[in-house]
Amino acid sequence: MFTHRLATEADLPAITALMEIAIAEHLKAFLDSAQVELSKSIMGLDTQLIADRTYVVVEEEGRLAGCGGWSRRATLYGGDHSTSQRNAALLDMSKDAARIRAMYTHPDFKRRGVGRLILDICEGAAREAGFKSVELMATMSGEPLYRACGYNDIQRIIAASKDGVDVPGVRMGKTL
């Protein structure tokens, strides 16, 4: 049985460790090793989500199973270290979509409903805050989950590119 709560700064080491293993394990079925490595340069935790109290952790018997959040800010994706994608401006809920951000599931818990639980929590919170829609940037490994949860393609992009290596991404959205 899963429990969830808002993440705190004390959770940062466990969240970071979960993200590292999730990136390495989940993406390797969709990307080659160079693409997985480059993905690390744009993926990760934006600690603004914890400060904004919009980031949750999901646990089972005290073990971190997953994490993810939503945001009122313009940044669509990227961690603290990926400054080129960051924009802390607040969104206008009358016309902008809230952002679903930094969702990760520990490989030991995949296909057990952790991602769906996080999406439900985030979508509910965004709806309660007054947003009418949500958007996210999907990795290739996350795309099937988001599609199954009612998200549609907005735009396929190259999320990162370096030395001839490209990392694809899909901007997806959903009406709440």
Q: What can you see in these coordinates?
A:
With 176 residues, the chain is of the alpha+beta class. It has a single domain (2-175), classed as Gcn5-related N-acetyltransferase (GNAT) (Aminopeptidase, 3-Layer(aba) Sandwich). The protein has five helices and seven strands; from the N terminus they run E-H-H-H-E-E-E-H-E-H-E-E. The protein has a seven-stranded mixed sheet with strand order 1-2-3-4-5-7-6. A hairpin with a 2-residue loop joins strand 6 and strand 7. The radius of gyration is 15 Å and the shape is globular. The relative contact order is 0.18. The model has no long low-confidence stretch (mean pLDDT 95).
List keywords for this structure.
alpha+beta; Aminopeptidase; 176 residues; 32% strand; 27% helix; 7-stranded mixed β-sheet; 5 helices
**Helix count?**
5
Spans of at least 5 consecutive residues with low confidence: none
Overall average residue pLDDT? 95
CATH class: Alpha Beta
Classified in CATH, the superfamily is Gcn5-related N-acetyltransferase (GNAT)
The best one-word shape is: globular
Structural class by SSE content: alpha+beta
Number of domains: 1
Q: What is the rounded distance between the termini? A: 26 Å
N-to-C SSE series? EHHHEEEHEHEE
CATH topology: Aminopeptidase
Helix content: 25-40%
Write the layout of secondary structure elements.
Elements: E1 2-6, H1 12-27, H2 33-39, H3 48-51, E2 55-60, E3 63-71, E4 98-105, H4 114-128, E5 133-138, H5 143-148, E6 152-162, E7 165-175
Parallel strand pairs: 4-5
Antiparallel strand pairs: 1-2, 2-3, 3-4, 5-7, 6-7
